[in-house]
Amino acid sequence: MGRRRKLTDPLPREAEMFLEMLVAERGVALNTLESYQRDLGDFSGFAKSQCTVPAQASADLIRKYLKHMDSTGMAARTQARRLSALRQFFRFLYAERLRPDDPTTVIDSPKIGRALPKYLSEAEVDILLQCAAEHPGAEGKRLVALMEILYATGLRVSELVGLPLRAMSRDGLMLMVRGKGEKDRMVPLSEPASDAIQAYMEVRDRFAPKGSKGSLYMFPSRAKQGFLTRARFAQILKELSVEAGLDPRRVSPHVLRHSFASHLLAHGVDLRALQQMLGHADISTTQIYTHVLDERLKQLVNSVHPLALGH
User: Fold this and answer.
1) CATH number of this structure's domain 122-303, picked from the four choices 1.10.150.120, 3.30.390.50, 1.10.443.10, 3.30.930.10
2) Which residues does the entry assign to the active site, renumbered to this chain (predicted)?
3) 3-state secondary structure 21-82
4) What is the per-residue pLDDT across 130-168, written as a single tens digit (0 to 9) for each?
5) Is 226 helix (H, G, I), strand (E, B) or coil?
6) DSSP reduced 3-state for 168
């Protein structure tokens, strides 16, 4: 437990035991561990102000804590995250028989409004692709391949950078992608994407680690994992957006995934087909893009409708 930063007020022993379990059994990342530590520390301070300790908290005390967070103007998403931490904490106490019940089972989660995905216009994506095409040499060919694949398929950035060589079909028109839950899906490639991959393959070996007998990845790199990292690609994309005259804060691999989905839906692609291409397990996840279109239509009506202009 030496990885964690110390709090001003030490956590109760039960909370320390819970954090130790997260490290030993779940191997949580340091940032995640510190997030749990902060959340439990905040609840511990509130419980102390109510003359009790976290391990003995009742459902009424937890509801009072939620009201307290809401009264401070805390975002519903942050409240939900803290309640999630408490649920896991009390589930742990119950499983370890450190208390006879789990008070969070009767607590409702704060309602969170689902944020609409951010996306670029088709013209903005075109500008990015044109700017990428102006980059010379091997770096330029790799950049064009990455951009064309991403916009043609809507892959998650982890799926894109980690593509194996064998992912592309023999005719160069499809990609076999392994997504979340180790589920495979076939994704069609556009003609520009297929052409960009073919051009990039001529220079691909220049990015492979020296001394290697041949990388198994489409986008090899000298990075530890053997392929282009997500962070490096995100950085390249930010640099490209600046060159293209776009606000880099609006451009990311995930924004391009959203742009792919929004543009296809706007051009009449079936929602089920889009779900398959995006690799969504539940179509309700894909349906959020219909809200993007609804919002776009509202903005269009408000900007051009004669009655709207008259107000």
Assistant:
1) 1.10.443.10
2) 156, 180, 254, 257, 280, 289
3) HHHHHHCCCHHHHHHHHHHHHHHHHHHHHCCCCHHHCCHHHHHHHHHHHHHCCCCHHHHHHH
4) 999 999 999 999 999 999 999 999 899 999 999 999 998
5) coil
6) strand
Give 10-25 pLDDT, tens digit per residue: 889 999 999 999 988 8
Spatial separation of the C-alpha atoms in residues 89 and 230, rounded to whole Å: 32
CA distance 168 to 156: 16
Burial degree of 229 (CB within 10 A; 0-12, 13-18, 19+): middle
Residues labelled as active-site residues: 156, 180, 254, 257, 280, 289
How far is 276 from 177, CA to CA, in rounded Å? 11
The answer to whether 61 and 69 have CB atoms below 8 angstroms apart is: no
pLDDT, tens digit (0-9, with 9 covering 90-100), for 13-61: 999 999 999 988 888 888 888 999 999 999 999 999 999 999 999 999 9
Nearest CA to 153 among 117, 193, 113, 206? 193
Cα–Cα distance measured from residue 87 to residue 70, given in angstroms and rounded to the nearest whole number: 18
CA distances from 20 to 13, 27, 37, 136 (A): 10, 10, 11, 52
What is the distance between the alpha carbons of residues 107 and 7, in angstroms, rounded to a whole number? 28
Rounded Cα–Cα distance for residues 208 and 206 (Å): 6
Q: Which amino acid is at 269?
A: V
Please tell me the predicted confidence (pLDDT) of residue 87.
Answer: 92
Compute the distance between CA of residue 90 and CA of residue 33 in angstroms, rounded to an integer. 16
Which of 176, 181, 144, 141 has its CA nearest to residue 162?
Answer: 176
Q: What is the structure's pLDDT at 239?
A: 95
Tokens of 193: 């994407």
Length of the chain: 311
CATH topology of domain 13-106: DNA polymerase; domain 1 (1.10.150)
